[in-house]
Automatic annotation (TrEMBL):
The keyword Hydrolase applies. Residues 204-311 form the Asparaginase/glutaminase C-terminal domain. SUPFAM superfamilies: Glutaminase/Asparaginase (SSF53774). The lineage of its organism: Bacteria, Pseudomonadati, Pseudomonadota, Betaproteobacteria, Burkholderiales. Keywords: Hydrolase. This is L-asparaginase. Substrate binds at S53, T85, D86. It comes from Advenella kashmirensis W13003. Belongs to the asparaginase 1 family. The active site is at T9.
Amino acid sequence: MSIGALGGTISMTGAPDGQGVTSSLGAAELAKSVPGLDQCATLYLHTLARIGSGSIRFQHVFDTLAWARQQIDQGAQGVVITQGTDTLEETAFLLDLFWSAREPLVLMGAMRNPQLPGADGSANLLAAVQVATDAASCNRGALVVMNDDIHEARRVQKMHTTHVNAFVSPVRGPVGVIQEGRVTYLRDTPARPRLPVPSAYSSKVLLLEHSLDDDPDIVSFALDAGYAGIVVAGFGSGHASERLRDVLVTAATRIPVIMCSRTGAGSTTRAVYGYKGAEIDLQQHGVLMGGWLCPRKARLLLSAAVWNGIGGDELAGLLNAWSQ
């Protein structure tokens, strides 16, 4: 059983000058702080980085993926990654797109640093190891464990800035729970197509949140700047103003464009609204609908597709498989 640490609140302690907490604890220190953790499994501990999760780059994610795969190849029955919660849902989903091993890959973090009353990091780490060593966790891809809930990476979202129950799965709830040290799954996790690890990942996808009377020229700027795709966090169930619609339709003739919802929960619709800029009109002009995927994860899915040269009908099929 392997634990890789990337940093984040779970690893942060206070500075002598009283100017807030920063990442200082590595994997070994985190493991030592959890009573009974070494009784769950034989642990291999490695510190991958000591950074806030907002500074995680794609390079960190692919380095983490390579390390995790190496651990599985060397016989680990599962891998746990500790990191900050600000981008936890994104890191987990990006890893999930490429995690083809049957063994579990479990991500977790903490909402309260170790020096605060009621710090949750130790409990979350123990629960994550319990999940990663449970046979029922196999063939479920990447999972997120927070607050004794087990979430599928593609569904989980951080929905509060500070609460310990900040992580939820708005569509169907958690896929499982940990109670009295026992892992219980509530439903199956359907298999989805994983992608090859790309040889390069420099191509960029723009994520644009649509707002009242905003300027659609940003889409033209993105095209001129060489962006390889666009994801829009649109109004309601996936709608755009007429002005933005016109530039998106033009963009869709050159690069893939995905329309999601900015609401935070619910799916885009496919055949309800027919006005200019609504989903029927957009789809007729080549814009793809993001379904249940939040805009941030749609951006990562489109990025992964672009890096692998996937477009057209194959992209539509991939999006459909991951957005249900």
